[in-house]
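Q: Given only this backbone (362 positions), what sequence would you predict?
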């Protein structure tokens, strides 16, 4: 008998957290029995106060099981309950796994055997975003899946870099699917669910992105992942919370070292001093996690494929991105010709335009 409707009914009550639901489920051994328990049944659970039991009964009696299930169904939201055989095994191992995972997108094609969480500051520095983008680009075309929280800053950079490099990505949000937070990531949400990964939440569709839900969400980000890479973090940040959860869950913790003058790296160096791994390239991640990958072979562009001016432009972009004016100064090519060469190199797939007027060697 399909008892998923009782899991969804439990999750529809905002005042009932996953720890409480798991406690009832573990005691009764059956989610339907747990949902329908009376005061006498609940009184047999060691340590469960009368007040907590009475509060649950008041909430339970207000839930229309058929209605809350139909609300999920009419929104076209997929879900996995804790009892589902496809529920992620890694997530089951944490101390308080979500009772229901609501999701949109293609979960089946996300490789849950090679999941890497990436977290960091919402107000990330240009350096941190560039370093992270470079490291993810070195994983291009592999079966590694990038997990992050779909917030602004490092999260957004991680998801976009994954998409740019043909990697699947999982976004874990801190609200129900009736909300898109931040609103600026609406297009990113759509890209991920359009065959490029999946968006997951433990929250019933109508739950708002309230402040306390973001730290709760973090345990899922790390819980889905074999390791967590912290790109940037201050001493008081959500990224540091996720780092601590990673250690509690017995997973690998890694950090990208940053500029010591940046306050957002204070948390990074605290973690490194306490034993977190240092990551400066993708090979470091593979070594820490003991992963072997076979990247897709890409054609190499040789200097003979390019004329003298194109080669000069590529040499100028060898170390870091350059804006148009910098390329004029470094190459001595006039404005009209430089525009032509840049367009040609983009069409060949050798360079790409980033951050407005800056160019990067692919």
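A: Predicted residues:
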């Amino acid at each position: 008998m399909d008892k998923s409707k009782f899991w969804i009914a439990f999750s529809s009550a905002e005042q009932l957290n996953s720890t409480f639901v798991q406690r009832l489920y573990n005691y009764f051994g059956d989610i339907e029995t747990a949902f329908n328990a009376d005061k006498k049944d609940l009184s047999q659970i060691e340590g469960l106060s009368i007040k907590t039991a009475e509060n649950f009964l008041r909430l339970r009696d207000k839930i229309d099981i058929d209605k809350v299930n139909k609300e999920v169904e009419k929104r076209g939201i997929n879900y996995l309950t804790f009892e589902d055989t496809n529920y992620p095994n890694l997530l089951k191992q944490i101390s308080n796994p979500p009772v229901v995972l609501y999701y949109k997108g293609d979960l089946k094609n996300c490789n849950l055997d090679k999941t890497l969480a990436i977290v960091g500051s919402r107000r990330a520095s240009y350096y941190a975003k560039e370093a992270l983008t470079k490291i993810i680009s070195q994983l291009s075309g592999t079966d590694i899946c990038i997990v992050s929280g779909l917030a602004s800053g490092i999260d957004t950079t991680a998801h976009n870099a994954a998409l740019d490099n043909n990697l699947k990505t999982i976004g874990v949000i801190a609200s129900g699917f009736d909300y898109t937070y931040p609103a600026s990531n609406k297009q990113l949400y759509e890209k991920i669910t359009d065959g490029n990964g999946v968006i997951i939440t433990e929250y019933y569709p109508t739950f708002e992105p309230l402040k306390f839900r973001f730290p709760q969400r973090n345990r899922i980000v790390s819980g889905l992942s074999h390791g967590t890479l912290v790109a940037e973090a201050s001493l008081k940040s959500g990224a540091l919370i996720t780092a601590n959860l990673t250690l509690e869950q017995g997973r690998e913790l890694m950090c990208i070292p940053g500029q010591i003058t940046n306050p957002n790296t204070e948390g990074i160096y605290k973690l490194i001093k306490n034993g977190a791994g240092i990551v400066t390239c993708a090979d470091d991640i593979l070594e820490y996690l003991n992963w072997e990958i076979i990247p897709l072979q890409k054609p190499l562009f040789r200097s003979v494929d390019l004329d003298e001016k194109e080669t000069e432009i590529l040499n100028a972009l060898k170390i870091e991105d350059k804006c148009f004016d910098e390329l004029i100064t470094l190459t001595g090519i006039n404005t009209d010709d430089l525009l032509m060469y840049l367009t040609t190199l983009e069409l060949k797939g050798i360079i790409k335009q980033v951050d407005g007027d800056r160019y990067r060697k692919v």
